[in-house]
Write a structure and sequence with these properties.
InterPro entries: Nas2_N, PDZ, PDZ_6, PDZ_sf, PSMD9. By secondary structure, this protein is α+β, with helices and mostly antiparallel strands. Helices cover about 45% and strands about 15% of the residues.
Length: about 230
Amino acid sequence: MTSSEAASNLAIAEVERLMLRKDTIEKEIDQIWATLNSPACQQVGRDGSLLDSEGFPRSDIDHYLITSSRQRLTVLENDLKGVMNSLERGLENLHQIARDTGTITKGHQQQQQSRKAGDEADIAREPMSIPQDRVINSSYPPFACVSEVAPGSPAAEAGLLDGDRIVHFGGAKKLKDLPSRVQAAASSGSSLSVEIQRPGGDGFRSIELDLRPREWSGRGVLGCLVTPL
């Protein structure tokens, strides 16, 4: 392994660690919000008063639970800001390594070379058919919609179609989380699991696809638009 490959692998590992930390923090934040907005806390949220109309502590709420949850929420939000800043720097470092070396890893370079000739012929290729064993059951609601899928793009090769609704994209279930997932995958040459809901018949069916963000002959690394529902 060359020094550039070692550096890129370390950079990728750091980005993956930060993304995992980000997911962990966001999950705990969601849990705290659920607690603060639950009937047990009388849905006081973050800013609701803990005093009654006469200025005395309310007797219908758990003061310690609410206060400690609010304090923990503040700590987690500050932690999340730090992680997001570190993640941004990590992604910039990955892109710099890619520019300096021309590739992130030797395996990625070999993948690029093997696909080069095929990519040119893929410009007019129809979207790939979806194996029946990738049709799945989903319990999550979609958060975004796919449109303007360009022929020969990574999105088209993965099998995405206009009108598909995204349930998760590389584990992200919120639109704001997509850029970091896509950039990290494009830099490392890895694929992302994408769960979609596709209209057909009397409703929608859930399908799981593999999409590898990468540079191609068109704009961006996906070759489609992703807009919020």
